[in-house]
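Hey,

The postdoc asked me to send both predictions to you directly instead of through the lab channel. I've kept everything plain text so nothing gets mangled by the mail client. Protein one:
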Amino acid sequence: MDEYKTSQLDAVFGAVADPTRRAILARLAQADARVTELAGDFPISLNSVSKHIRMLERAGLVSRTVSGRDHVLSLNARPMSEAADWMDFYRQFWEQRLAALEAFVRSRRKTASAAEKPADKPVVRKGKQT
């Protein structure tokens, strides 16, 4: 994986690690919003919301359009898609490994079960062997 992709993934995972930033992304998934509108949704200062937004912008998850004094934010989900693709690769990797482990355990159980099964013994009834 090239250095750009690695740093982009680092930025995305760092950005979505915070619940406030995830809430901002969820809000922007509904509709674009001005910075002041977003700030009103959170019990923190406008300055704190702006810091969260800047981190989301650095990760490429949010884009800003300036029109006069209005700063309108939009969600850009592409970096999250790339992060999901990265996670999916490892999900498939571990699913394959776990499936192989499960097959191994099942085969060992069958082998152990067959080894523990007692050999057929003659049935003894009233002093006679059959």
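Protein two:
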Amino acid sequence: MQRRFVSIWFCQLLADWQLIRRPELAAVPFVFAAPVHGRMMITAVSALAAAAGIEKGMRAADAKAICAGLEVLNDKPGRCEKLLRALAEWCIRYAPIVAIDEFAKDGLLLEVSGCPHLWGGERAYIKEMVLRLKSKGYTVRLAIADTPGAAWAVARFGKVSPLVASGEQATALLPLVPEALRLEAPILAKLRKLGFYQVKSFMGMPRSVLRRRFGEGFLLRLAQALGTEQETLVPVQVPVDFQERLPCLEPIRTPVAIEMAITRLLENLCTRLKAAGKGLRHGILTGYRLDGQLVQIAIGTNAASHSVSHLLKLFKLKIDHIRPGLGIELFILDVPKVDDVAAAQETMWAVKPGLDDQGIMRLLDRVAVKVGPNVIRRYLPASHYWPERSVQPTFSVTEKPAAAWRLDMPRPTELLPAPVAIEVMALIPDHPPRFFIYKGVRHQVVKADGPERIAREWWLEQGEHRDYYQVEDDQGRRYWLFRSGHYTSEKQFKWFIHGFFA
């Protein structure tokens, strides 16, 4: 597929932004100014101010002398970049890769390969972008070409068609001025001094001559515009490997139509995932509304899946959270996290129990979508003797344990995150307790087993060992208690509760 790029030039970005916020300024010439070396210099000019002869880079005092009634507004550092970033994120609806023009800081560059056909072709594609941006109040010029450099040049300096046919970028560049190549000011001054006022004046000259007179940077810009040198764009949002887009012929508002759109996206996505041997673990559906707002819902799975029916059930549980407003014109389904999907062995006589059962995994996915993924917990054994370190949480159903559960000694069904101090009465200090008080309630011990001594892992930390007892109170409830350290007459020993048996 031939790569195609669109350049969007916001002819008077800050001025348009101000007019959107303050429409009353439409009949007033105004400029933005910022201090430079102690003087207020103009950074942006409105259309009325430009018609009066005011240009960017002039001193604000000189501009006021030229244009009576000129309003000077204070510019803030980074305002233009912030505005461009917001516009770039809005333009992601038209292409997955949108970058800020780092040369002029007044436009965007989009890689649109494979996108224009969704809008009926390149001409309709560009027309749609122009109309939408103008409807928001921005004055723009657009062009499309095989290279970012050629699109940038035609958008700003082109006089004919904004559509540069594939492979025709050299022809489109010939009648343009050298400024169209994004050259630095010293190089442009040299070109004007030598009488080169159009690109065709030096296009056919030997590279060695151009390099000697204008430097390597000049040749790089020329090669980027022609396509003999690749130019890398830095997107404002890095696109994921698995993404599906669905533009809507008419704005969608009903839950039934939203479900149909999700089904279409999942069918295309799962076909790609299956071909790659991957499955969805986390998916984000973004809806672009007519009013410019975004609506999002997300799902997650405990195991990688490329089943359309299963993933659709998860999304259907969240369709009610989508607020379409006046309507959604574009859906984008991103899959930022995928895992490998192992081919399952089909058998007629065996049923895989437990977490290997796909039905169990799909049930867990539906529960997680309803109540939240953090409600479902799974724990695996860890290679530690110290109870607090012997269990590790995991968010994956398919993760395999690195160690086996310890079965030689009883362990409580519920282990407290940290031991809780209790009051204990024991006949002899080294004996199990006769009763203990936990949370203000006295428990009379009728049965006890122990002690089981667990030494502290000295290679990780220093401290006392623990002597654990399994005890049962007069209500039949069983607890895991321990005494910290040895009993001595000089030191007061302490008792703790650490868990509960079923």
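Summary for protein two, as requested: The longest helix spans residues 255-276.

Thanks,
C.
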